[in-house]
Amino acid sequence: MNRNMNLLVPYYIMMAYRYYECDDPIVSDSLFDSTAKKLLKNWENITHYHKDYLNTDMLEAGTYIGEYPSIVSGASYAVGSKMFEKRLRALL
To answer: Is the pTM of this model over 0.85?
Structure first.
């Protein structure tokens, strides 16, 4: 598995934070859903330390219900939307 696949975990959490907590999405709904599907497909092989913030039920529903790691707030605004989307699409 591509080691960069692990990056989908924080990307998904950042996207959820900006959408659900800030009402300021950084990607389209379809890209968010595509990320959830890719995470589900590779779930057993992903080893990111924030993986415990997610579960397969959330990913199957294409949502996020939970707490956010403290780093997410700043990190979600540190990346520009265009660059974030470009990096994310490269992983999908």
So the answer is: yes
